[in-house]
Amino acid sequence: MLKGLMNLKRAEHISDEQLMIRIGDGDRTAYKMLVDRHLRIFLAFAARVIQDRAEAEDIMQEAFIRVWKYAANWNPERGARFVTWFYRVVMNLSIDVKRKRKPTIELDEAFEIKANGPEPDESLSDKQMAAGLAAALEHLPQRQKIAITLCYFQGLGNREAAEILEITTGAIESLLVRGRKRMAELLKGQRKEFLKETMK
Amino acid sequence: MNDKELDMFLRAYQSETDQPPSQQILDSILTVPDRITQGSWLLYLRPWHWLDSMMPKVVGWAMTCCLGIYVGLLSPGGGESAMDEEYYLYDQAQVLLFEDMDFDPRETG
Fold first, then answer.
1. Which structural domain, as residue segments, surrounds residue A184?
2. CB–CB of A187/A136 below 8 Å?
3. For chain B, which end, N or C, has fewer CB atoms within 10 Å of the first or last residue's CB respectively?
4. Nearest-CA residue of chain A relative to B43?
5. Which of B10, B27, B41, B52 has the highest number of chain A CBs within 10 A, making it the mutation to test binding with A?
6. ipTM of the complex
7. Domain boundary residue among A60, A80, A101?
8. Number of domains in chain A
9. Domain end: A66, A101, A136, which one?
10. Positive or negative: CA dihedral A35, A83, A166, A185
11. pLDDT of residue A9 exceeding 70
């Protein structure tokens, strides 16, 4: 029991990069640890970029296949961070999937998604707000959308997001400002129309 | 829409899209090591591997050979060795020597 706890404590201190080296040697326990650490965060990222949960799961499957295959070539001397590399892998896979399919949800349709109960006042339910924002995100240019996803939903700093997108921090800030402005414009118009209809 | 309202939308979207992975996908991902071979000798049996990894090397070697032949042909001498040239000149000198030789009539009698 005590030994197990000590192993668990030690495992927490192993970096992702060290785990990659172990995975490269065929260590399945290290692979499992990496999956446990990152699956939820990156699945949410893929789902936010492509806005389809089932496809996001397929992407994660492919991404972890690449981890398993690529780990043998992982070079710790290059100083690359696993998280940055993996964000790029998931981002590129998501962009590929997105390119192959048509846009799904229109902005005016998004607010029509009904919540579980009736809406007594002017407020929108979380589900409606989320659907509205998802539709607004779909209307943004890809880089703006990914910058917003990384910084606002994935909780990354501007520097980390800039590293993933391979642009400067200034460029990230600019993408965020323009993205926020555009989303506010899109949501403002649609929300008013929706409220007018529900108040009738 | 002001910043505060937009932040409400962003928070709602964030919480709606942050769901734990299903057991099915977790199991499927955890069995990847059982299903996928990790960069072993089996890779060399796949034709695309040869195309991917061997073709650049083959093209590189072929170009190096072509460049070597081209440079070799351009260099002075055109492939004839120095020793051949000396022999050739030596033979020529011999021929010339015999052609210019003055015969002494007394010697021939």
1. 102-200
2. yes
3. C
4. A69
5. B10
6. 0.78
7. A101
8. 2
9. A101
10. positive
11. no
**A3 occurs within a structural domain:** no
Q: What is the pLDDT of residues B26-84, one digit of tens each?
A: 999 999 999 887 765 555 556 666 677 778 888 999 999 999 999 888 877 655 555 55
Residue to test with chain A: of B19, B25, B31, most A Cβ within 10 A: B25
Domain annotation covers residue B84: yes
* Per-residue pLDDT tens over the stretch A33-83: 999 999 999 999 999 999 999 999 999 999 999 999 989 888 777 778 999
Residues A95 and A109 in one domain: no
**Chain B residues 1-40 within an 8 A CB cutoff of chain A:** 1-3, 5-6, 8-10, 12-22, 25-26, 28-30, 32-33, 36, 38-39
CA distances from A151 to A13, A16, A45, A147, A176 (A): 26, 21, 11, 6, 8
